[in-house]
Amino acid sequence: MKILLSNDDGVNAQGINTLAQCLSEIAEIVIVAPDRNRSGASNSLTLESPLRVNQVRPNVYSVQGTPTDCVHFALNELLKEEMPDLLISGVNHGANLGDDVLYSGTVAAAMEGHFLGVQSIAVSLVGKTHFDTAAQIVKELVLQHVKNPIPNKHLINVNVPDLSLDQLGATRVTRLGARHHAEDMIKQYDPRGVEIYWLGPPGKEADAGEGTDFYAIEKGEVSITPIRVDLTAYEAMQHIENWVTPK
Predict the structure, then answer these.
(1) Closest CA to 45 of 10, 70, 20
(2) Are 5 and 24 in contact (CB under 8 A)?
(3) Sign of CA pseudo-dihedral 5, 52, 37, 184
(4) What is the CATH number of the domain that holds 109?
(5) Tens-digit pLDDT profile for residues 135-162
(6) What is the pTM of this model?
(7) pLDDT given for residue 153 in this prediction
């Protein structure tokens, strides 16, 4: 089995390298990841400049681009003659819960794999300590997929509490929760007195009830959320049809 790994934290991040070491026990691993932290890049592609790729060591490639660039390059160029069996994006340094998935480079990398026909999993650690726990959970999911493939080739988003393996609760299939709006932007001044702005911290949970990814993590459980890439609001189509062409 061949597994492609990518992320948005960069090729040298602890999460992706811990995952690579764990999965190398069961598969051939190829890493194609950004040359630096590209968190929050979402599904952006580099269109106005070429991608520069550096082979860091055998089967490990650094790309001067976004997470989506990395997967696009890997599947359309580097591995096009022998496509991977799975793409796993992560382990991300921090959560990707609720509407975080709209901004996440981690989820975007998995989504690009999904678009290009490779079964993909995004995985995040809700913290920055127990990457070994998240890697072991991914290994179990991979072995489960080998025995019984993920149905309908859905993209799945996995979040793992920052706990040791023996402290984890059950694994739950969840829906995406939602946050309140982000906090206000932080206004500062650079050394020349020019105004600069930082994004405020993410908002607190607004929809975090039972069944959501937020709720599972709060209970110390692993959250697995299947994601539908088709954004069409089918239930609204007739209403919009009536609005466009009123009778």
Answers:
(1) 70
(2) no
(3) negative
(4) 3.40.1210.10
(5) 999 999 999 999 999 987 789 999 999 9
(6) 0.92
(7) 76
